Amino acid sequence: MASNSFTLASKVKLPSGHLMPQMQLGLYMMSGREVLSAVPWALAAGYRGFDSAQMYHNEAEAGKAIRTFLESSNNPGLKREDLFYTSKLASNGTSYSSVHRSIKQSVEACGLGYIDLFLLHSPYGGPEARLTSWKAVEDAIEEGEIKSGGVSNYGVRHIEELMASGPRIKPSVNQIEVHPFNTQIEIREACAKHGIVVEAYAPLARAERMRDPTILALAKQYACTPAQLMVRWSLQHGLVPLPKSSRKERVIDNVKVDKFEISQDDMAKLDDLDEDLVTDWDPTDAP
C-alpha cells in the first residue's frame, strides 16, 4: 500500500456496483446554517461525499448547498453524478407505505433528484419493522429514487437476520461507530463475510480521546494531527470514515492523510486502545 494511496478522490466499489468516496463529510449535529457553510468549504477542498439523515434535520440545507455549488462559478466542472449524497430513515416502520413515503420525502427534501445511499438508521422496531423497512428501500432502488441501500447501527444478529431473509437487494453498507477506542471487530467481520462495506461514523471518537498518550505519541511520530492519525487508521482498515467538523480549517485538515502510512506494528498499537467506547448511542444490541 503506497503511503499516498488515500485522497479525497479515492473511491470504494459497493455491492450495488456504484462507486462511493472513501472519505466523506459527516453532517451529524450540524445546524442548517452550519451545513450551508461547511458543504461548500468541503466541496472546494475536494470532498465528494456528504452524510445526512432525517434525524439531523438538515437534509434540505445539505441539498441546497450542493445544488448552489454546482450552479456557482466556483464549480470546477462537477455534475450531480460526481457527488455522493447519503440520508437515513429516522425510524423503521411496520407500515410499508409509511417507510416508502418517508424515503420519497427525503428525496424531495434534498432536491438532488435522487439519493446515492439510503440507510435504515437503526435496528430499532423489531424484526418485522426491519424487514418491512428494507423492502421499501429495495423498491425505492428499483424505482430509481435511491441508487444503493444499506443499514446503520446494525449488530451481527441484525445483519444475519436481514441476509437470512433472502433480500432481493443486499445491503451495500453498514454505518457504525468505529475508531481505535471502539474497533467493532465482530460486526466488521460479519459485514466482510457478506461483502458489506463498513462506514465509520465518529472516526475521531468525537474528540474524546485526542489527548490519549498513544494517539499523541504516534501523531508526533508521523508528523500528523491526532485526527489525521485516526482517519488514516480507518482507511488502512478498509473503512469509509465520516469525519465531521463545522470549522473550515478542520474540514480541510482532517483528510490530509496521503503523506504517511501507519506501520503494521503501530496499527496494532492503535487496535489495542479498544475499550468499547460509545460516544453517542449504541443500538447494535437492539431486540
UniProtKB/TrEMBL annotation:
Protein name, as recorded: NADP-dependent oxidoreductase domain-containing protein
Family stated for the protein in its record: Belongs to the aldo/keto reductase family.
Domain of life of the source: Eukaryota
Lineage: Eukaryota, Fungi, Dikarya, Ascomycota, Pezizomycotina
Domain NADP-dependent oxidoreductase, chain residue ranges per copy: 30-274
Binding sites annotated in the UniProt record for substrate: 121
GO molecular function, one term: oxidoreductase activity
Active site: 56 (proton donor)
Pfam families registered for this protein in UniProt: Aldo_ket_red (PF00248)
Site (Lowers pKa of active site Tyr): 88
Keywords recorded for this protein, A-Z: Oxidoreductase
Source organism per UniProt: Neoarthrinium moseri
